[in-house]
Request: fold
Amino acid sequence: MQQAERGKRRSSKLLSSLSIAALVSILVPGAVCSVLAKGLTGTLIDRSGNRHELTKILIRGRSEIEYYVAEQRRLVPLKELNSIRLDGERGDEEQPIRVELRSGRVETGIAYTGGQGSSPHQDTIGGALARNELSGSTNLGPFITPLNNVRELIFRYPEDSVTSDRRLTATVVAQEGRMSRVRNLTYRGKSDFDFSQGRKKRSLDMALMSKMEFDDGGSGREVRAVAITLRSGKQIQGTVEASIFRLSGETDRQFETRIASAFIGQTAGGPFAIGMHRVKLIIFISEEEEKAAVPDTTAGRAQ
Amino acid sequence: MKSRTRLNGFLYSSVLLCACSLLWSCATTSGSGGRQYGPAPIPEGKGRLFLQAGGINELNFYVEDQVTGEEVYTDMPRLGASSPSAYETGSQENRLVTDLDPGIYKVVVNTDIEDNVVVEDVQIKMMEEKHVQIQVGRFQLTTAGPGMGGRMPFLIMDYRMRTVLGKAMTSTEVRHFIVPTGSYKIRMENSPSGLDEMRSVDVSFGRITHVRIGTEPTQEPGQETGQEQP
Reply:
């Protein structure tokens, strides 16, 4: 009798656990699908003060925004941002922009919004016209507005989502042996490092790296090999462009930026910049190591 | 005796039918070297990813598993923009399709400039097709005039001309440069011909922007223009 009751209880337990598992298996992928389907969500405030709740937010059809800080180009994924604010007049071709990143960092600069609408160049046929607009979806349907009609865009994220925008600290060793401890290290203004593997161009978040070692090619070589060691222990090999020759048509500023400012950041003594042809080794310092480390006094421009 | 003959007849006819059906199936299906019409069925347990690039048939792209970061597919058929031997062939196949295991993927498209087009959260479901739009466009640059060769190097810059995004070279053949949609500037400086041209290029999805840079031939005094005077 007791055995029969036990058997009944077991079977009811099994059934209930199976039903929970089935419910979870139905609900979890559904939730994932709904998050993926929504894309980036946020509130748009236009220049007339109207508020629009948007999903699937894209700028010029892309999930990145291009702006300039101190005349340096930035191309930042929208998922790294908390908010964007565009000032200036509606008809301006370029507008002051204030970008608040999810890490709390705030950047101010200039963004190209296209003004009242540009026309194709006189030598351009085929009717191509770059659309400077922000697009998304509302409850009522698709939403498109010109970028110069946007005043503010505030993004919303799930509570458990994390940002990859982090301030990197690293020890940079130059070819001649000079060592610098650099804060806020970026590669051409971004936290991703670009390299090639044959025809393939790859970008890798520098926050995932523990070390980057460049070969002893010396200056004058167009291409240098790089060995990247990730924090997971995995090693990746690739090549980077390290040309110091001036390209035909390049302006002085462009040439200077390309040659001398591949990696930029700050040292204790001031701004830091080093060209790709000069760097030998970069050792990334984790947050824990950084807290434990003694302040460094190395300063100056390695270039 | 009769029944045996009937059985033999039945066996012969069934063997003949089998042979005919085999022959018919060989004749109607393509072999390993043949070309199929229409897309092949999705393999068992997989989903199909289509990249929609507005009429572009081939792109340099790779697909990564978004969870593990592992690369699951790569296709790099295009030569670099500055390669002197690259041109568009008239017999391009659409290579922007691949079959993948169900999962969530990141698609990275390499363009002819340093900016990649990255599409994240691409969900592939079993036995389903997923169409992903890649926001890239094409432009074509042709040069004409005395002192202008077929292969002329030029730079692709951002619209505000603060950064050189890529270097490229024109071709005597038809050649398209693939870049993310947007506004760019191109600059062609050529010392031998004294040419220094800068142009704005708007690149949009699904269209080819044609840009022509050329020097007008200098007309000798007294040369006939070919137009009849009234």
User: Anything to note?
Assistant: Chain B touches chain A through 59 residues (CB under 8 Å). Chain B is about 10% helix and 40% strand. The CA atoms of residues 65 and 105 of chain B lie 5 Å apart.
